[in-house]
TrEMBL record:
Protein name, UniProt field: ATP-binding protein
Gene Ontology MF, one: ATP binding
ATP-binding is among the record's keywords: yes
Organism: Streptomyces shenzhenensis
Key words of the record: ATP-binding, Nucleotide-binding
Amino acid sequence: MTAQLETLPYRHVLTLPTEPAAVRVARETAERALVEWGIGLRHPAVDPALLVLSELVTNSVRHAALLSPQLTVIYAASRDCLAFAVHDRHPYQPPLYASGTAVLAGGLGTVMELTLGLGGTAVVRGDADGRGKSIWITLPL
């Protein structure tokens, strides 16, 4: 999984209202993109990746909707790497890694357990103006 995100040959960007239906649309769009890119839906990383994506979109809907009427999902892939990000315009940047022996609770705990269990990475990237962020997940295929 050494590919730089900028060099991944497959990309798709989707902007949605920050509403509950966004979770379903983001997931269905991911499934269509993966099939189009030749990544089978039975690949062992796909179900966990779709769950992680659903959790991140759900978090934006639950926690960012008041300040961010839209969210953006960026999908990218190569032959050996799958990456996606969920972006909203809420300034809060949640911690992805617990300190010490503490374990993250809730949806982000699930996100991190699945991501790390698959040998992937997760990072929060703040917008240049400090008023939004993206959570990027990268998984090996």
